[in-house]
Amino acid sequence: MASRHDSDPEPGILALLPSGFVDHALFAQAMTHRSGTDEPLASNERLELLGDAVVELVVTDRLFHQFPGATEGRLTKLRAALVSRAVLAERASALGLGQLLIVGQADARSANALSNALEALIGAVYEVHGLDGARWFVEHLLDPLLAELTDDLILGDFKSHLHEVLAHLRRGAPSYDVSWTGPDHARVFQVRLRVEGLPVVEGVGHSRKEAEQAASREALRELAALADELAPEFGVALADEGHGFADGSGSRPTRA
Fold first, then answer.
1. Which domain CATH number covers 231?
2. Is the pTM of this model over 0.85?
């Protein structure tokens, strides 16, 4: 027999839902695990499928516009981290959804069931309020995590990766020549980076670190273009890391 709790939204949950969410029947369905009903279409699985698609769209759109310089590979990894089962289960638990799940067995209150219930709830919000309401709800849930994302996380540590690549190829360490222009409060840094066997590359940024990262990324592009000559497996490793190349796609560039 299913274990049933009061399936109406708690006051705390209502405060997080878009104003006017009054479809208690849809909320109850979003909280119904497949073990809690004899009717497959009465479970939350269909709403979960819808909510999963909505979460991916909303988070992808947010990351796409928040970080216009991030590569496709980097955005994909960030999205995967933000909408992981662990993250969604934690947010569902914080909302108290575990106490509202309608289940037919005790072990149905797993982290997976919690994340599925939250996705189903997002699907229900989409059904009632459309994409704008669902976007508001998802961003409200994930804003604390989105706020912690920094440019360093998005860009990746190209400088460290370059040193790893050069060590693998048994080449000498790169040298960085740093210069800057402008007043102290608005300096622009330029770095000329030299690597044995490569043309000099340059990077520009509002800090020395940013300029070094930009120059290191350019050096990685040059190494990727030579990957077939240096070590065929190396170009694949660079692409897998999501470090963007000249076309911004993560694909290995070719030399004319």
1. 3.30.160.20
2. no
